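A student in our group prepared the protein record below, which I am reviewing. Thanks in advance; the entry in question is below.
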Amino acid sequence: MRMKFIGPFIFLIGIAGLAFYFYDLFTSTSSEGPEYFWVGFVAMPVIFVGVILTAFAYRANITKLDEDLLRNKMRVVGQGLKEGLSDSGHYCSNCGHPSELDAKYCSECGKELH
């Protein structure tokens, strides 16, 4: 939860540093050059770190949502398999017609049930 706030905060610090760098670059005179030239080179990795921290924070949240969604889908599939496999009826091995549990012969083809 903290990285959702820390990552964007670091990113904004980097953007502010980059904005300061551009301000210093464009307001300097051609004879003396920018005084805080190094701030631009420090700001770019800070922006990168902020983006990476933010991405990891939100990816963890999305992964949790995907996990819950997958768990619910697997529960539905498992219930369907359970219902399909627990069919207690008997079928004729010759014609596949369903028959009663206590029947000795198939009512469709007349073959003996095993």
